[in-house]
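call fold(seq) -> tokens
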Amino acid sequence: MNIDRMVMRFAGSMVIASVLLAHFFTPWWLLLTLFVGANLLQSSFTGFCPLARILRKFGLQSGCAFPVQSHPSQEET
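ret:
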């Protein structure tokens, strides 16, 4: 199991849970879906994912989507 797979599983689970909660309780739960989507979109541009940082601290290995960088300003060319 690597960080990439866990991030995708977590995001997918949150979207499904949000849609179910919106259907059975209140449409306000769709804000969770919006938040998850916005976070996925920003991480695709910036490479920063809060969940990936947390999972890395728990010892999960990085995949190719969230590599370990020594400094945020260093980017691959």
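Helices lie at 3-24, 30-46, 50-57.
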